[in-house]
Amino acid sequence: MKKDFWLERWEKEEIGFHQNDYNPYLREYWQQLQLDRGSPVFVPLCGKSRDMIWLDSQGFPVLGVELSAIAAKAFFEENGMTPRHSPQGKFDSHESGGIRILCGDFFDLDRSMLENVGAVYDRASLIALPPEMRERYISRMAAILPPGTRILLITLDYDEKEMQGPPFAVSRREVQELYGKHASVSLLAEIDALNLERNARFRQRGLSRLQECVFLVELR
Question: Does pTM surpass 0.85?
Fold first, then answer.
């Protein structure tokens, strides 16, 4: 999956993955990370997620990374914010209040950019990647984040014969296999989510099963 795929999705506003409300699992399970207020939170492939507003409101500065400048611009405009712009290496930084979004390629991030990060929130990053990219993504996460960083990870699992991603199905077993060499992995919740109102689009696409899983991952 090439960068142009996601840039085109944003240009055409084909963004069914975007959630207009705060994610309920973020609000329910965030305290499991036991993160001190003021600790920065990294949100990979952040899009224009309103979850960043919630994190900031709870006292956690947010650092997002997003390939699409359209998404970053929309985030600040839709939330009534006027960001400051500045170059940062290969990225364009957009910042307002406690939220900063780096526009560019996730794989261009280096350790110095994330040295103060205390936690990661991943609702739409791992499940946005096809299987052949996931190991590279997680190896990069482990390389650039401080040891001991905790990750709140939310995934989907379904019968891939019934729907072609993204979002892609990532099973509990795959999460353990991918992160196991870098971190401890704990399952916080597994929800039979097909009939939830917010998942109507998945029923319309023909799914007969949909599990949403919430994990706590702690890097070694």
Answer: yes
